[in-house]
């Protein structure tokens, strides 16, 4: 329910705060005092588009904030899905800056307007006399029947069957398209696969081949240079290793003379060992290197083939070519088993479709069982609301499976005796629509967790007796749900648990809309004014007290 509402810098509202009670709240005031402006601000909380023209002070931003207790609404999944902090007391805020930028927040976390709209549907239901178009929508009517019939289990089973079939159908259709492409490319893919397979590529071989080619191309010069180096290192008389060995002996002698020189001897010995290792390594390399023109040509040819395939497929490594080879092999394998897999998926899809039909029939039957009770209860309520000859008929048309079932539900209505019920949009006036949807919400109040209900002058154009019946029904709804009613009828306004008065303050240079909760005495005066005008008589005051049961 709505615990508090604050509006700042919106239209004629400079600053406004209200804390409605948990049951039935009444809002009254003269025409143009700002009741509709309040609803416009509430609409911002529900995700409606903003307009900078609505700013009271064009130099400041507009802020509308509502605090809601959402403990019983079961909205944890929404908050988890949107990665929002869940709190039983949820705060929604909307800000409109002078430059037209709009920002929305849920529990101080910035959100997209779509998130705000989705959450707003679960928090507030604003209904006015001219806002009944949704009742004529087939999807809305279907949701009403589901709520009335209690089809949660059947609908969940149908949804699961429908989802499974859709997944299987998409898998089959996807493979069918892939099969067409595979068959078109089959010969070309096979040629590419054979070309890659015949080469017998191995990971890392390109670097090895390039290194081997480099050595083979320079084998004679490399051997010559190694021989020269080894001679300089290993010559018996003038070789570097022999000379350095003599120096090492001298350092050993030096270390025996003074311990300080041991570190030099150790470092020199390490360097000499490393130099001998280098010489041994070069000797080993010298023995391995051969001048082999045939091997060089073979290496060049293989590298050339690798380079050609890399250029052909726009790839830069042997590993990438091997990955392509695997992909082509997988396609070839898939093509070999394509018909078998297609048949399996087609059979699975067909079986799941039968499950959808079966679940759809169960759901349709459950919905059908609620038609007569719903129509009877709704007709009875409409008669209590002054539509003595109202009749309701629900028709059901079977359709192909959709996410919501296999039914098209149409609520047919007639307000006059002897007139065949027809589609709502063809026969219902604004006042009839208004009472019809009010009666529906009265029925639904016991069937589902409705959000805060706001009725904007829903009693317009009805008689006093009908208005009394309407407000009695509101009182019943308000026992389980928070109701806020904007009314111009004294007999309706008098039945609220809490009464707010909207008025214009002209005490400053600019008119400001304000709202205040009425005390018991102020409420008597307001109801009396609604009965008799600005200067109510004693009889009007007594009538007000009678309506208020004072």
TrEMBL record:
The UniProt entry's coiled-coil ranges are 165-236, 265-355
Keyword terms of this UniProt record: ATP-binding, Coiled coil, DNA damage, DNA repair, Nucleotide-binding
Q: InterPro entries in the record, alphabetically?
A: DNA_recomb/repair_RecN, P-loop_NTPase, RecF/RecN/SMC_N
GO molecular-function terms, A-Z: ATP binding
Where does the record place the RecF/RecN/SMC N-terminal domain? 2-506
- What are the GO BP annotations of this UniProt entry? DNA recombination; DNA repair; SOS response
What cellular component GO annotations does this protein have? bacterial nucleoid
Q: Which PANTHER family match?
A: DNA REPAIR PROTEIN RECN
Q: Which NCBIfam families match?
A: recN
Give the family this protein belongs to, as stated in its UniProt record.
Belongs to the RecN family.
The UniProt function text for this chain reads:
May be involved in recombinational repair of damaged DNA.
Q: What is this protein called?
A: DNA repair protein RecN
Lineage per the UniProt record: Bacteria, Pseudomonadati, Bacteroidota, Cytophagia, Cytophagales
